[in-house]
DNA sequence: AGCACGCCGACT
DNA sequence: GTCGGCGTGCTC
């Protein structure tokens, strides 16, 4: 028999495919497109995705190698999944292998195949185990708006993108669940994908889903899972056994052959953007995938991204408003602004805030203080000579961590003991400047010695599973005052919480990043939404949100005071349009890093010095805001266009030219960057 | 990107 | 005499 040649995509930055020989034999079934093959590559062995099977090849006979094995145990990935990877590869300007291969569970990629047969048997057990442990619950009645949202989404057929816009407590989750229920009931094998920003912070949602759909298999997909477990859940999605798939951004690249609905909760959340490797937007890929499959996609948020908001204003997305709070007695919290120029804080707390906390303590209610800065103090300083605790490897301060007596760089991980005296002049009186969550905790405990003060941040929840335990402590009511970073803003309903305070959120107002205020608004709205979610207590006052700021007249805080997302978003959009910024134009970023900043800048200058392209703006190279991280200097070059296709076409050509430049600079391009 | 090969400087 | 620095070249 004639040999067969397989065209295979591999996880390598080389922008081409590789042909391998496959020897036919009566024992081995013919390989198929979409199957995974194990091949020799250079001196390594790798797993690749079969993209074509043919009887000929252009590769010279002395170069071609043979396939080591084909993973017949894993059913082939279908053409639509491959098309998704191909789209992402083209759009983000990377080879398809760099998209497709990392999207597969590791156990399918390692040279020694794990026993898939055993795992497939395990799948059935997994489903049963989950069924035993839940108590089924029935769906609550929907209010008029929720009902209409479910009706609208389920009445149309074909591709339709929806923006489900509703404040915290308006019952978006219930719309997700009942929409999912209808789609699942409609077809024997249908699957629903639900994306959440961070799965570890939403155990409640997973619980709800399992209770509401007791007969159905639920798969979860996120980066915190063990490889064996990951394989099981991925396979259950891939084989169609899992009907509901709950996952983080990486789940958008999973194989879902019977997908009928995609839901993206908190669609504005920055964690939908992958920030390393293939820098994809799970939200954008979700919309593309829904379009490809001709199915609805629901983007839910109280504070939609300006991209999504603009789509809905332009009529490209269908807007569904939830304005009533679904929980009967729940009312919006009262937002008050405290001017810290007039009321000077001590220990970071104004007198008004301290009184508000005291009132909650007396009533046995909880308070939440939001301070987005972990550690004790962001820097220490010598008054005598001006020395500051700077990281020698990064353009950043070493943060003081008092509990473990360390100075720590939050960017490169460097740590050292807190010096007893100033390293340059010997002064023993070093000052902690500024305030992190640890210092706030210390101050609060001093003011309220009897109160149970509790801190939740990346430091207090470093151990696996400890975040969930920490949240449980708060839910149980074992906490009076909760201090937290952005970790506490997401997902959790605190039933006894009636006071939320934001300390010192001002820095984002003047950030270089034009998206900083959009993010701050979303974050404050979200954290404000933690208060009083279970409804008003008998005879109680509405929950309160206090913002301590030096800029009490800033429009962002005024919008927040009036719960006016729409006004805020419309104003920002107006500004963005005037200034020709996203979402009205499209951007790509060329980043370069080298030992010396000058080397990186020079590379970017050379890159910028290309033939002019109509409709493309190439800006000047600039050092990144945080120039040096871990002894590497970084610079970037922004490319803009008002036409997405024009930008794409330019990038394709440009990157080919850049690859030809002989350089030691490490560089890469990011499409639709969100952190500038 | 890995991973080799290859040709020049300081070590047991 | 070797270990190892990173320049250059290749991966079906």
Any descriptors?
single chain, 676 residues, alpha/beta, GIY-YIG endonuclease, Rossmann fold, 5 domains, seven-stranded parallel beta sheet, six-stranded mixed beta sheet, 18 helices, 29 strands, DNA-binding
Description:
This protein has 18 helices and 29 strands. The chain has 676 residues and is α/β, with parallel strands linked by helices. It has five domains: 4-103, GIY-YIG endonuclease (3-Layer(aba) Sandwich), CATH 3.40.1440; 128-322, 3-Layer(aba) Sandwich (Rossmann fold); 334-374 and 436-574, Rossmann fold, CATH 3.40.50; 375-434, no CATH class; 586-671, 2-Layer Sandwich (Alpha-Beta Plaits), CATH 3.30.70.600. Strands 9-10-8-11-12-7-13 form a seven-stranded parallel beta sheet, sandwiched between helices. A six-stranded mixed beta sheet has the order 5-2-1-4-3-6. The chain has a six-stranded parallel beta sheet with strand order 14-24-23-15-22-21, with helices on both faces. Its EC number is 5.6.2.4. It comes from Undibacterium fentianense.
């Amino acid at each position: 028999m004639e040999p067969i040649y397989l065209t295979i995509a591999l996880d390598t930055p080389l922008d081409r495919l590789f042909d391998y020989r496959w020897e036919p034999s009566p024992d081995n079934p013919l390989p198929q497109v979409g199957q995974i093959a194990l091949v020799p590559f250079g001196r390594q062995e790798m797993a690749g995705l079969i993209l074509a099977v043919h009887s000929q090849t252009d590769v010279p006979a002395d170069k071609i190698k043979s396939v080591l094995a084909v993973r017949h145990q894993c059913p082939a990935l279908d053409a639509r999944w491959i098309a998704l990877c191909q789209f992402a590869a083209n759009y983000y300007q990377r080879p398809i292998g760099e998209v497709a291969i990392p999207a597969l569970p590791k156990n399918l990629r390692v040279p020694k195949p794990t026993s898939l047969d055993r795992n497939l048997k395990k799948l059935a057990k997994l489903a049963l185990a989950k069924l035993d442990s839940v108590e089924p619950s029935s769906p609550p009645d929907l209010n008029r708006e929720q009902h209409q949202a479910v009706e609208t989404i389920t009445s149309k057929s074909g591709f339709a993108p929806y923006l489900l816009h509703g404040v915290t407590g308006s019952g978006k989750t219930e719309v997700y669940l009942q929409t999912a229920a209808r789609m699942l009931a409609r077809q024997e094998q249908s699957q629903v994908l639900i994306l959440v920003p961070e799965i570890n912070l939403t155990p409640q949602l997973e619980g709800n889903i399992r209770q509401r759909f007791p007969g159905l298999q639920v798969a979860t997909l996120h980066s915190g899972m063990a490889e064996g477990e990951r394989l099981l859940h991925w396979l259950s999605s891939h084989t169609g056994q899992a009907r509901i798939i709950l996952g983080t951004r990486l789940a958008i690249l999973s194989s879902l052959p019977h997908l009928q609905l995609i839901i993206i909760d908190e669609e504005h959340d920055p964690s939908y953007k992958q920030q390393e490797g293939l820098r994809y937007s799970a939200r954008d890929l979700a919309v593309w995938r829904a379009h490809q499959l001709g199915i609805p996609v629901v983007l839910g948020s109280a504070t939609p991204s300006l991209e999504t908001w603009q789509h809905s204003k332009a009529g490209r997305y269908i807007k569904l408003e939830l304005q009533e709070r679904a929980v009967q007695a729940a009312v919006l919290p009262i937002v008050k602004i405290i001017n810290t120029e007039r009321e000077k804080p001590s220990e970071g707390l104004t007198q008004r805030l301290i009184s508000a906390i005291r009132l909650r303590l007396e009533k046995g209610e909880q308070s939440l203080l939001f301070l987005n800065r972990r550690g004790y103090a962001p820097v220490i300083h010598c008054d005598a000579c001006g020395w500051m605790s700077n990281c020698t490897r990064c353009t950043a301060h070493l943060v003081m961590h008092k509990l473990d007596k360390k100075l720590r760089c939050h960017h490169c991980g460097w740590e050292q003991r807190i010096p007893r005296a100033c390293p340059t002049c010997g002064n023993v009186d070093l000052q902690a400047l500024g305030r992190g969550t640890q210092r706030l905790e210390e101050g609060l405990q001093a003011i309220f010695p009897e109160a149970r003060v509790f801190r939740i941040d990346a430091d207090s929840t470093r151990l696996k599973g400890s975040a969930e335990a920490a949240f449980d402590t708060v839910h149980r009511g074992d906490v009076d005052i909760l201090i937290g970073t952005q970790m506490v803003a997401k997902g959790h309903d605190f039933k006894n919480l009636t006071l939320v305070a934001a300390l010192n959120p001002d820095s984002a107002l003047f950030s270089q990043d034009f998206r900083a205020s959009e993010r701050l608004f979303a974050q404050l709205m979200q954290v404000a939404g933690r208060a009083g979610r279970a409804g008003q207590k008998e005879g109680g006052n509405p929950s309160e949100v206090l913002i301590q700021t030096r800029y009490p007249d800033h429009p962002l805080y005024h919008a927040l005071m009036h719960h006016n997302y729409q006004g805020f978003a419309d104003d920002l959009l107006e500004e963005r349009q005037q200034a020709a910024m996203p979402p009205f134009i499209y951007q790509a970023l060329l980043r370069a890093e080298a030992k010396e900043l000058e080397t990186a800048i020079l590379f970017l200058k050379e890159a910028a010095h290309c033939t002019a392209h109509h409709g493309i703006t190439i800006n000047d190279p600039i050092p990144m805001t945080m120039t040096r991280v871990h002894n590497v200097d970084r610079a970037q070059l922004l490319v803009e266009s008002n036409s997405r296709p024009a930008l794409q076409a330019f990038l394709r050509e440009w990157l080919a030219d850049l690859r030809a430049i002989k350089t030691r600079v490490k560089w890469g391009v990011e499409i639709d960057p969100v952190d500038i």
